[in-house]
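Please describe our next protein:
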Amino acid sequence: MLGKLMGAYAGARAAKETRGVDQPGGAVMGMAAVAIARRFGLPGMIAAAVGGYALKRYNDRRR
């Protein structure tokens, strides 16, 4: 429960800096991120981070 609250708080704070996402939406995304992180585990999170980085590099090269 504490992890979900911390995730919701972090998501709401991040939503302030992100265009197109309001604070309640950020809180929901933060809660979802905590649940997904638990299911993925450490190897899954590392794979997701590497995949996100690779996608970013691919999109940057296309521009």
In short: Residues 29 and 41 are 18 Å apart (CA to CA).
